[in-house]
Amino acid sequence: MSVVRDLILQADDDLRYPTSGELRSMVDFLDQGAVRLAVVRTLTDNEKKIVDESAKQLFSRKPEYVAPGGNAYGQKQRAQCLRDYSWYLRLVTYGVLAGSTEMIQNIGLVGAREMYNSLGVPMPGMVEAMKAMRAAALALLSDDQQTLASPYFDFLILGMQTPT
To answer: How far apart are CA 31 and CA 90, in angstroms?
Structure first.
């Protein structure tokens, strides 16, 4: 769930104290707390802007998605797409806060391929949407914040590309 929790649980499973390397990892994680919170605050405060920009980017590159017969054709379908984008952005913020991809994996990726396939949503389209969301979100962050947030977007994108 979080770097600190995971390190403590691993040490406990091994019936030992955390190693000096594990303790350094915890200190590094805790030292990044203010940056993590700033990233989450920026992404949360700009959710609508990020989702709208990512949809704009995706639908300009893939107009067939919003054309008649496309998965985002019509107000209801488009709203569902944007809801999903927002949901995935929220999962990225959870990852940034926790310093872990576990929640992205367990909540956002496990079963996602099956769900989208059953709904007829093309996974390549979701991957493109997440790439657009990554670009829109990172554009709002400083270089240090981008370095911190990028791996969580990358994990999400890679997880959507990888067959389950």
So the answer is: 23
